[in-house]
Amino acid sequence: MFLESIADLAFLVKLYLESPQEYEIIGIVESSSDVEIFSQAARDRTIEELKVQAAKIGANGILITDTSSEGSIWSDDGQTKTAKGRAIFVIKE
Description:
Layout: H1 6-11, E1 14-16, E2 22-33, H2 40-56, E3 61-64, E4 74-76, E5 81-92
Parallel strand pairs: 1-3
Antiparallel strand pairs: 2-5, 3-5, 4-5
């Protein structure tokens, strides 16, 4: 299979809720939306944007980090909703 775009690479980025055995942190990715984040479609778009950002910097995973005091990956400042994670390169799951 020949990958031709960042979207192709983003498809290969895996989400992690817990740390893999061995990985390197490449950077932080964050995606915000002023759309209702509680709709599944808006959440899907936000996660896809995180994957695209991670793929752009060479990550093959995103370690989702808590962004709210309630332990959710979604934070809300009243106007925008944000999801955040660490772009990582997984060596061993």
